[in-house]
Amino acid sequence: MQEARSSEVQVYAAFKVANEKGWSLNSVAVVKRNSSFSMKNTVCALISGDVNDDKFEGTIEWKQIETDNDYVAYSVVCNVPEMIGNSHLFSLYDSKSSFQPLNVPLHLGPTHPKDHATSLCVLSNDPYWHIDDLADFIHYYSLLGVDNIYLYHRGIGDQVISSLQALARTRTLSNVTIHLTTWNRPSSSSLLVDFALINHDCSWRHGAKQGSSITVQFGHFLALPKGLRLKEFLAKARGHSSESSFEVRIPLQTICANLSATETSLVRRARMINPKKKVIRTGIIRWTEAPNHPGNPETVKVDPQAVKLLIFEPCRTTENGKTEDET
């Protein structure tokens, strides 16, 4: 993810979307608490061409979407007149100080958006090192009906990228598109701030006329009742609400998976799990329904006995060869 930053504010990838009067430049920003950065004096502009003289100021809208002890996350929209050409930057600068301008390359929206698609937006606090874990995760959600997977990462090795490219060519994932997106958010920001930022960013990347963009943490496997796919689960969870964004908190359970040599797929191993471990916390899923823009999510509830988020870990064996859950 391309971004611009100062010591007090970070602006992430910006997206150019046509509206009735021109262009909306959509982005997200993180502002450090108690900083000298002034939103009141901040001006937004579209820079066209290779020189700053081709600058067209717009009207800016800041909307707080999440906060923690150190940072405040905002959705930032800059409305500018329609411009010709594709060589554009989104620029933020303070009109009354020496605040260095923050310039971010603009992404164009999809030329031919899909009529309907489901996108999974994956947040990871750590680099992706282990292709087996990543492959299991991608395969699992592909079986739930995901069309696109956006992997927001803090680092990824060349070997993992090569393995993902090979994985994408397999028959089982022929209908799933995998996107790698760098995520350089502040290391001290909270999980909720990350969820809010990625939910907004990924909704703009989603590019479907209808369908959900869902944010989930890497390693959290959504366990649904048999036969229920992700799209049907989300529709049931939101009910008849007229809102566009939703959040659900689901019991998060750490359980062990059978690592027998006869079952190489985590999805198959999951059927042999004896979930005796105690539920100790909850996980989060957020989603936005296209073609709406993300907003403050409405909290919805699900049956905690029927729907869970699972974290898998290897089963530790006892001296007699049985797993601890079998003793």
UniProtKB/TrEMBL annotation:
A GO CC annotation given for this chain: cytoplasm
GO molecular function: glycosyltransferase activity
Keywords assigned: Glycosyltransferase, Membrane, Transferase
EC number(s) from the headed UniProt entry: 2.4.1.-
Localization, UniProt: Membrane
Organism domain of life: Eukaryota
Family that this chain belongs to: Belongs to the glycosyltransferase 92 family.
Name by which UniProt lists this protein: Glycosyltransferase family 92 protein
